[in-house]
Specification:
Blueprint: E1 7-12, E2 25-30, H1 36-44, E3 62-66, E4 71-74, H2 85-100, E5 107-113, H3 120-131, E6 136-141, H4 148-161, E7 169-171, H5 180-208
The structure holds guanosine-5'-triphosphate and magnesium ion.
Residues 32-38, 52-54, 56-59, 77, 141-142, 144-145, 173-175 line the site of guanosine-5'-triphosphate (GTP).
């Protein structure tokens, strides 16, 4: 996969703003401050496509980015202690309606900070993805914060904790580009899965006509 051009499309606050495309939609999700917006910038080779911030809770809307072959939806982060109960409920509603309609996404990249044990919010989120039968890849960010020899064993320990196979877990650094090749390969895989799904849908509608 070669990423040539990426552009911001629009933000959506709720169901009425969610977008549909005739190409795969990949949701980027994870705890607040884990590096979702930085990740989008890293794969786009751009510094300021998605707004990043040191203050958790920066992204409150679903932000869509067009990468030509696919679309990325940057989702608001969860688990931010300082937001009000009302805000949290609003977040839960937005996310729930986003996941409930499978036209809203084809794959999820769930980002975790490699230095932290997955917590109850992360596990709930994985249960959520499984419940709605959404294929996902776990991406451990901030690998630059560990020594090179610690990256693989730490990522493997997280994969074991979450009962994930090796192919479903990638360690990356948004700072120095570590793991980017693996992300590009994964994007090829997501594209191929989307194309076979479309082919199967076409075959099925042909049989029924
Ligand atoms: N060292 C290091 N810092 C990172 C990495 N990725 C993100 N950061 C930093 O972590 C902070 C949060 O990054 P964001 O990309 O804004 O995180 P986010 O998940 O989009 O946050 P919300 O939108 O608030 O949910 C920023 O200060 C980034 O510079 C990484 O791979 N390595
Ligand atoms: Mg963000």
């Amino acid at each position: 996969m070669i990423i040539k051009n990426a552009t911001f499309l629009k933000s959506a606050a709720d169901k009425s703003g969610f977008m549909h495309f005739d190409k795969p939609i990949i949701a980027v999700c994870g705890r607040s401050n884990v590096g979702k917006s930085s990740f989008i910038n890293m794969i786009a080779n751009r510094n300021k496509l998605a707004r990043t911030s040191r203050d958790p809770g920066r992204t409150r809307l679903v932000n869509y980015f067009d990468f030509e072959q696919f679309v990325i939806a940057d989702l608001p982060g969860y688990g931010f202690a300082q937001v009000s109960k009302g805000e949290k409920l609003k977040w839960a509603k937005t996310i729930e309606s986003f996941f409930a309609d499978n036209k809203n996404l084809d794959h999820a990249f769930l980002l975790l900070d490699i230095r932290r044990e997955p917590n109850a919010d992360d596990i709930d989120f994985i249960n959520y993805l499984n419940h709605y039968i959404i294929p996902f890849t776990v991406i451990c960010t901030k690998a630059d914060k560990l020594s090179k020899t610690r990256i693989k064993p730490t990522a493997n320990a997280i994969a074991n904790r979450l009962c994930l196979g090796e192919g479903n877990m990638i360690a990356i650094s948004n700072e120095n580009g570590y793991g980017k090749e693996k992300i590009l390969e994964r994007l090829d895989f997501v594209m191929a899965a989307y194309q076979s799904k479309m082919q199967a849908d076409d075959d099925e509608s042909g049989e029924n006509s």
